Amino acid sequence: MGDRAIGSVVARGGGCRDVSVRVLDEALGVVVVHIDVDVGDVMGANVVDTVAEAVAPMVRDCLGGRMGLRILTNLPLRRMVCVRASIGEAALGGPGVVDGIARASRFAELDPFRAVTHNKGIMNGIDAVALALGQDWRAIEAAAHGYAALNGRYAPLAVWRQGDGGLEGFIEMPLPAAMFGGSTRVHAGVRAAFELLAPKSAGELAVVMASAGLATNLAALRALATEGIQEGHMRLHRRKQQSETVDETGEMTP
Length: 254
What we know:
This protein is of the alpha+beta class. It has helices spanning 2-5, 7-11, 45-63, 89-92, 95-110, 112-132, 137-148, 188-197, 202-225, 229-244; strands spanning 15-25, 30-38, 80-88, 158-163, 166-174. The chain has a three-stranded antiparallel beta sheet. Strands 1-2 form a two-stranded antiparallel sheet. Helix 5 (95-110) crosses helix 6.
């Protein structure tokens, strides 16, 4: 039933893959039916909603009762991405910096107040790529923060550990990237960004985005472990002010 409603997706190799049921409240009879849909390289929100509408009558006939919401979830646990990175201590500034970054990462694991800001730094990188490539950054943000709190306590999406002669970083999160859909082929700037990056699939694009998030996280932690984040921000503001003093001829104005 679901595949028949999305024939064009099935023709490209996608389609419904699995179904599962969760009972949220047995006394009230609140049941959730999950249908896993392989949307391929598209954003997929409309595809999943179409499947939900198509199978709703069959679900109602099987379970009885009244049909409730028929909509996708923005916590796509079947669209996970994992990235690992290794950086030598010489590139980071020495063993003291490595230790400071590892301690800052551990702080985020221990304290949800710090974890929120830790993850915000990750999303600085991911959202920048998402905006440049016409992605649904709101869905990506929702998935990231939902996953961070999935176990009942808000946790960091990326962690850093001291390794042999440097740092080992790891990020894991759901990341619904897409090659098609939304503004990915409409906006000229987005098309140019796709041509520059040339990803081969939505999965590869998700890896690039997660890597950008891991890199911005490392940059923030390194600043915190050395000069402090404020000094870095002030240096950025100074560069911005200098660029704003350039007149139309390209010369610096007094």
